[in-house]
Amino acid sequence: MRRPEEGVRYECSRSMKTFSITIDIKAPPQRVWAVLSDVEGWPDWTPSVKRVERLDAGPLAVGGRARLRQPKLRPAIWQITKVEKGSSFTWVTRSPGLLVTAHHVIEPIKKGNASRVTLSVEFSGLVGPLVAWLTRGLNQRYLGLEAAGLKRRSEQEPRLADDASM
Asked: What does the pLDDT read at residue 73?
């Protein structure tokens, strides 16, 4: 098994229902937020997402929805349940017997102009533990791809459009 790069920490709950990754990014939280909150842009920086279609206009807000298409998974509609502008959002997707909750958290790092990001996915409901166990490798792989892609994109020089949104 390869060692994670410096500044990256993977975690999996003992019950195998929650998977998370934490990564340090050499970019200020507002820059990371600009990249992360542009969910329709995710396919540009992570191969774990093929397409995102926002079903509501405007900035991320509680109740907002998006349709995600990911390799090896069925398309899913995710609904935002919590937003702290500039620092976090949580969304959920449901199917019979299953609730999947994904958290995206950005924290400033005291040293320098940097951020610490934690991405996590949690499975609950009647079939949640089974689905989590069956997809554990894919969950860990996708979280790794998403964290690495977010780091790469956030550490790049911002485009003019990104500057306007900060």
From this structure: 94
